[in-house]
Q: What sequence folds into this?
């Protein structure tokens, strides 16, 4: 018995040692496998970081393209140059505030489009101010369009669907780097698309012609031309309303149709007032007629 016991103990020790080695080997293998597996929390963090990096909106510089500015126009020109910068800042703020919302054309329709319209109006005022006492510069409207410099998840497509939305049309116009699922989610969540552009109703705007004072004969042609343009803008907006039925989120019509239309009307109405003011009393308060509504 005394001889058998040590042999039994040796076998027992060998067995336990072997089992421990197997367990240790398993732990090493598992550790190696985990080391080669991407950490899910890191992946989530990276995804969130990318999704929160929609890029920035940049626009052509206007100040450097201006001719000599008459001293009498300098203050007005400077004021509008400052306004151009404010408009870009506001657009970038909105871009950041609408991350993760919208569909495939949100950035173009609800941010870049309205920004361009605002810039057209502002640049036009700069040109008019310079032209009062000097040679009115031409071709400045080519500087109105801005672009989205993609960052993070948007790389590869200027305006991607995963970055932006505010409820309006949705996600950047160019599908390049965006994901269709995000754009679709922005449109479909909670029935947003259905509550966006339903195609019902028409856009109507306050009448401008009836609110004008006497128009000097020398300004009549320009005033008529801009009154006709106001009607064309309404027709284009109604056409777009019909062509975008079923698109966008809950604010699509306001952000992508009514908003840009108002900006265009502000610019056109401003030109009418300036034309009348050259030979008569410039009318005031006409900007209150710029906003239009959707009558359902």
A:
């Amino acid at each position: 018995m005394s001889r058998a016991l040590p042999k039994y103990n040796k076998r027992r020790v060998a067995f336990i040692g072997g089992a421990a080695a197997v367990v240790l080997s398993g732990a090493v293998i598992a550790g190696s496998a985990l080391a080669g597996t991407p950490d899910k929390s890191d992946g989530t963090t990276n995804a969130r970081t990318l999704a929160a990096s929609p890029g920035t909106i940049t626009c052509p510089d206007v100040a450097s393209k201006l001719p000599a500015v008459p001293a009498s126009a300098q203050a007005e020109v400077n004021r509008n140059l400052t306004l151009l910068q404010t408009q870009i800042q506001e657009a970038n703020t909105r871009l950041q505030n609408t991350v993760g919302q919208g569909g495939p054309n949100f950035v173009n329709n609800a941010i870049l489009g309205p920004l361009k319209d605002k810039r057209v109006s502002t640049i036009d005022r700069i040109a008019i101010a310079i032209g009062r006492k000097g040679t009115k510069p031409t071709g400045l409207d080519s500087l109105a369009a801005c672009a989205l410099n993609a960052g993070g998840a948007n790389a590869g497509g200027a305006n991607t669907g995963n970055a932006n939305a505010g409820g309006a049309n949705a996600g950047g116009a160019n599908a390049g780097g965006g994901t269709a699922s995000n754009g679709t989610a922005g449109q479909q969540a909670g029935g947003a698309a259905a509550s966006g552009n339903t195609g019902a109703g028409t856009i109507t705007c306050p009448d401008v012609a009836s609110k004008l004072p006497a128009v000097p004969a020398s300004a009549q042609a320009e005033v008529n031309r801009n009154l006709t343009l106001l009607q064309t803008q309404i027709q284009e907006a109604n056409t777009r309303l019909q062509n975008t039925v079923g698109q966008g989120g809950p604010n699509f019509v306001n952000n992508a149709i009514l908003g840009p239309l108002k900006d265009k009307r502000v610019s056109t109405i401003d030109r009418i007032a300036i034309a009348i003011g050259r030979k008569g009393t410039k009318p005031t308060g006409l900007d209150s007629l710029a906003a239009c509504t959707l009558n359902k």
Observations:
- The chain has eight helices and four strands.
- Residues 13-17, 19-53, 152-195 have pLDDT under 50 and may be disordered.
